[in-house]
Design a protein that fits this description.
This protein is an alpha/beta fold. It contains twelve helices and twelve strands. It has two domains: 246 residues, Rossmann fold (3-Layer(aba) Sandwich); 96 residues, no CATH class. Helices cover 29% and strands 22% of the residues. It binds iron/sulfur cluster. Iron/sulfur cluster (SF4) binds next to loops.
Length: 364
């Protein structure tokens, strides 16, 4: 249905861009309850507190930040697994925050999630065959509904599961096995196959390689890239480590205490990070050259991440920022455009001019 149609559905948006996903002013707040029967709301945990982002079709948006910064909550909210307190999530012309019941379920088939810990996300009592076929049954898909079956393909759920396993690099014989019989990397491949079997448009990958050995991480990232090429997928990849999202992302958002504090295309962000928090995350990535590693200037984070129930006034980063000045304690910095990026810092230009930070080009 056209978004300009006068009879347009109220959940349709006027979005007419090449973005598959557009988020505007998204907030996810959790009430803090007290009292004998927890009937008094005494505050809110502001896990996501006013996020805007856009993800063009077929591209990858990397979302990075420390544990507790709100990135996983944001990822779950994009699929409406967490209820939005405020804001819009436009997915292919439909505002997901206004959907419920069957209409949301139908949309969710087009949006799948890959989780950090495949051992926790795969039921150990189910065989791989059962794990892969289950999503097809849950969504009531008959084999004939599944587009990727070619005209000559055997049309059965089992055939679909076997072909999906091959796509992710596992033999057909894996169908009869159980999750504990696989390595961590192989289990993540099964988790990816389970997400892909519904032929989604959007995949949210939440720390998809952080539970894996470094040697296996690159293989899984390469697999995600290959699947993106094969199926034209759009990704949001969430990670605490900038090095992980570097190669797979077209655009990267750096998140701190529920806000995006810097956003740029991957090359710009790595070549010229501007926000002090991004500089600190960059400093945490080891440089392969041991001499450079010992001598490079670092931006070190002071203290712990403040509570999202009681975020600092002014710039939320000021309690840990080595460049903080008086105005940072009282005035909230807007996310403003500076050249090819957006930065939420009052003093970004001045810090950028003066900082002699070793950029981690060459680190993986
Ligand atoms: Fe640091 Fe101030 Fe910039 Fe915040 S606004 S990042 S406290 S310099």
């Amino acid at each position: 249905m056209s978004a300009t149609n006068e009879q347009a559905d109220p959940v349709e948006t006027t979005e007419a861009s090449g973005n598959l996903l557009t988020v505007r002013g998204l907030k996810v707040h959790y009430p803090i309850k007290k009292g004998l029967i927890f009937d008094r709301t005494v505050g809110h945990v502001r896990a996501v507190d006013g996020v805007d982002l856009e993800v063009p079709r077929g591209q990858t948006y990397g979302l990075v930040g420390e544990s507790g910064c709100g990135k996983s909550t944001l990822g779950r909210a994009l699929l409406q697994l967490e209820e939005a307190t405020e804001g819009e999530i436009d997915f292919d012309g439909t505002d997901l925050t206004r959907l419920s019941g069957e209409r949301l379920r139908v949309m969710r088939r087009r949006m799948q999630m890959v989780f950090q810990d495949p051992m926790a996300s795969l039921d150990p009592r189910q065989s791989v065959q059962s794990l892969l076929i289950e999503p097809l049954k849950v969504h009531g898909l008959a084999p004939s509904d599944i587009e990727e079956f070619g005209p000559d393909s055997p049309k059965s759920h089992l055939a679909k599961a076997a072909s999906m396993l091959e796509v992710v690099g596992l033999p057909r014989a894996s169908l009869a096995k159980y999750p504990h019989e696989f390595s961590g990397g192989q289990r993540q491949r099964i988790g990816i196959a389970r997400a892909m079997i519904l032929n989604p448009d959007l995949v949210i990958a939440d720390e998809p390689v952080s539970a894996l050995d470094v040697s296996v991480q690159a293989q899984v990232i390469n697999l995600l890239e290959r699947l993106q090429d094969l199926f034209g997928l759009t990704y949001v990849v969430i990670a605490h480590d900038l090095a992980v999202v570097r190669h797979i992302s077209d655009r990267i958002g750096v998140m701190y205490l529920g806000h995006i504090v810097e956003e740029a295309d991957a090359d710009t962000l790595y070549a010229e990070p501007m926000h002090p928090y991004t500089l600190a995350l960059m400093s945490a990535i080891p440089v392969p050259d041991p001499v450079l590693e010992d001598t490079r200037e670092r931006v070190l984070l002071q203290g712990d991440l403040p509570s999202p129930a009681n975020p600092p006034a002014g710039c939320r980063f000021h309690t840990r920022c080595p460049f903080a000045q008086d105005d940072c304690r009282t005035e909230v910095p807007e996310l403003r455009t500076i050249g090819p990026r957006k930065v939420a810092c009052h003093h970004a230009e001045e810090i950028h001019r003066n900082a002699e930070i070793t950029v981690i080009d060459g680190a993986s």
